[in-house]
Automatic annotation (TrEMBL):
This is UvrABC system protein C. Pfam families: GIY-YIG, UvrC_RNaseH, UvrC_RNaseH_dom. SMART domains: GIYc. Interacts with UvrB in an incision complex. The lineage of its organism: Bacteria, Pseudomonadati, Bacteroidota, Flavobacteriia, Flavobacteriales. Residues 15-93 form the GIY-YIG domain. Its main location: cytoplasm. It comes from Winogradskyella marincola. It is found in: Cytoplasm. The UvrABC repair system catalyzes the recognition and processing of DNA lesions. UvrC both incises the 5' and 3' sides of the lesion. The N-terminal half is responsible for the 3' incision and the C-terminal half is responsible for the 5' incision. The keyword Transmembrane helix does not apply. Belongs to the UvrC family. Keywords: Cytoplasm, DNA damage, DNA excision, DNA repair, Excision nuclease, SOS response. NCBIfam families: uvrC. The keyword Transferase does not apply.
Length: 597
């Protein structure tokens, strides 16, 4: 058979680093990827089985492949990132915060102004940032304004115009916020010295400004100018206070970027900490939406490239929790202990808090998305063939073999569905036999659902270990439901999850949402079962106590309980109190029963 155009394109790909692009039959770009070896990477899409459904769909839709060869893998990362942002292909990771960030501009002019902006213009001006919030920008500009007297007007302060006396000082000069450069009261050299200091502060270097102010303060004090010395001291306190607010790490750790990742089935959250002169000067978290079940390594590589490009980071070293491929120009470190490891842990905490906040917001604004995410996570964690939208959990309750009962609680879309809860009184089992009780209850529950043509759950959870799970499986076998409904057992002690025919239990992360929902189901089943068990014991105790009295029937007992509430109060009641409720004859029988002596 003649080879198709696509097969020929794949065969002729080079063994070089580069970027590949997949197009559909309409010549629409649907996916962009990078590779160390283009031929090996692209061929892998067509030669191996893909477990993830979306990847299989992507491969079916590929009609043609184009590629761009680059010098290094780092170039491939940058090119891939730019192409994804430009064309936003259907199957690529989605960047969730593509917005304009604020910058601080030091204007390219004779007496430079310092102001916030969201537009970067290539006119020779210096731009510091971008910053992740305008609040940070305002705080920094407030700090600078308190330290240095800069002009705020937008006049053209050329030497010719100042000498011609074209401008007059404004209110800012009289308030002491500006030194009056517009009338020649401040020289260009004096003003420029302040701009140099401001640049260092914006880079995160406070050391030079602190040293400069200390020298000035001593000079004023030596010549008895104590008011001026006090003003400089106040500026020192402002600067030191601001520096204390930024997280001081270790002066030896400078010009380093720190990255970490936290992900679930559908989203990944990548935190970025930027260090300069021993301080954390920036923290930002990027949210990525998964499209093809990308690994944390792939997502972190995408995010690092995007974030460094967005925030103009030129740091030669990065700290990450695991190995990533970013080319030869960047040193990748994986800290194991000390301050460096502490930074990676701090970054991960920031990513986790960001994710928690997002999930809380989603739960309120878009509960369906929250439920969909939980279901997808449970399907993956528990290795199920479908999402467990309908879960039922069983628990037995008996104390010393008396009044054996069982409870079935139902969760739908990860939430309790209390109208579907059911109690069971054990009918065929004598004594405290949890295994036989579980077998009876599971059989009765699903026999009824089948008889009434009610929907069956996608997952059954048995509160107990291998024994209870085996008992439940016997009932499913009898009903012909084995293999049609997923079933697991949870052992209380170590939160072990047991599967049919698998001797090795599954252990979930103690903090995982899947385990939390299973624990919630188990606890709810236990609570519901205990409540029913107590009610039966109470009724049994009441019946035994009062029905032992000769001549006292059911209606008399009901009348007494309505009035006195408990058997103890009936036993302690006076004869006339009893007579007022049930008459002289029956009152004397009850009174005499409790006062025989």
């Amino acid at each position: 058979m003649p080879k198709t155009s696509l097969e020929i394109q794949i065969k002729t790909l080079p063994h070089q680093p580069g970027v590949y692009q997949y197009f559909d039959v309409d010549e629409k770009l649907i996916y962009v990827g990078k590779a160390k070896d283009l031929k090996k990477r692209v061929s892998s899409y067509f030669t191996k089985h893909h477990d993830y459904g979306k990847t299989r769909v992507l491969v079916k839709n590929i009609a043609s492949v184009k590629h761009i060869v680059v010098e290094t893998e780092n170039d491939a990362l940058l090119l891939e990132n730019n192409l994804i942002k430009k064309y936003q292909p259907k199957y690529n990771v989605m960047l969730k915060d593509d917005k304009s960030y604020p910058w601080i501009c030091v204007k390219n002019e004779r007496f430079p102004r310092v102001f916030p902006t969201r537009r970067v213009i290539k006119d020779g001006s210096e731009y510091f940032g971008p910053y992740t919030s305008m609040k940070t920008v305002k705080t920094l500009l407030g700090l600078i304004k308190g330290l240095y007297q800069l002009r705020t007007c937008n006049y053209d302060l050329s030497e010719v115009k100042i000498e011609a006396g074209k401008y007059k000082v404004c209110l800012e000069y009289h308030l002491g916020n500006c030194k009056g450069a517009c009338e020649g009261y401040e020289t260009e050299e004096e003003y420029h010295a302040n701009i140099v200091a401001i640049r260092e502060i914006l880079k995160g270097n406070f050391k030079d400004s602190l040293q400069q102010f200390r020298v000035q303060m001593r000079q004023y004090a030596e010549v008895m100018q104590f008011e001026d010395a006090q003003k400089i001291k106040e500026k020192l306190e402002i600067l030191e206070n601001y520096q204390a607010k930024s997280t001081i790490v270790n002066p030896k750790i400078s010009n380093v970027d720190v990255f970490s990742i936290v992900s679930d089935e559908t989203y990944a959250y990548i935190n970025f900490l930027q260090l300069s002169y021993g301080s954390i000067i920036r923290s930002h978290t990027l949210e990525l939406k998964k499209k093809l079940q990308e690994s944390d390594k792939e997502l972190l590589e995408i995010a690092i490239t995007e974030i460094r490009q967005r925030f103009n980071s030129n740091s030669k070293e990065i700290f990450v929790p695991f190995k990533v491929d970013l080319g030869e120009d960047i040193k990748v470190s994986i800290p194991k202990l000390g301050d460096k490891k502490g930074l990676v842990d701090l970054s991960e905490r920031n990513a986790k808090y960001y994710r928690m906040d997002k999930l809380k917001q989603i739960k309120i604004v878009d509960p369906d998305r929250h439920a969909n995410r939980i279901m997808a996570q449970m399907k993956a964690d528990l290795r199920l063939s479908e999402e467990p939208r309908h879960i039922e959990c069983f628990d037995n309750s008996n104390i010393q073999g008396t009044n054996p009962v069982a409870a079935c609680v139902v969760f739908k879309n990860g939430k309790p569905s209390k109208k579907d809860y059911r109690h069971f009184n054990i009918k065929t089992v004598e004594g405290p036999d949890d295994f036989a009780s579980m077998e009876e209850v599971v059989y009765r529950r699903y026999k009824r659902l089948l008889d009434e043509d009610e929907p069956l759950p996608q997952l059954i959870i048995i509160d107990g270990g291998k024994g209870q799970l085996s008992s439940a499986l016997k009932s499913l076998d009898i009903l012909g439901l084995r293999g049609k409904i997923a079933i697991i057992g949870i052992a209380k002690r170590l939160e072990e999850l047991f599967y049919p025919d698998d001797p090795i239990p599954l252990y979930l992360d103690k903090k995982s949402e899947t385990l939390k929902i299973i624990q919630q189901l188990r606890n709810e089943a236990h609570r519901f079962g205990i409540e029913h068990h107590r009610n039966r014991r109470s009724k049994g105790a009441l019946k035994t106590e009062l029905e032992n009295i000769t001549g006292v029937g059911e209606q008399t007992i009901i009348d007494l309980m309505k009035q006195f509430k408990t058997v103890k109060r009936i036993a302690n009641a006076k004869l006339d109190e009893l007579e007022a409720v049930v008459g002289v004859s029956r009152a004397s029988k009850v009174y005499n029963y409790y006062h025989k002596e």
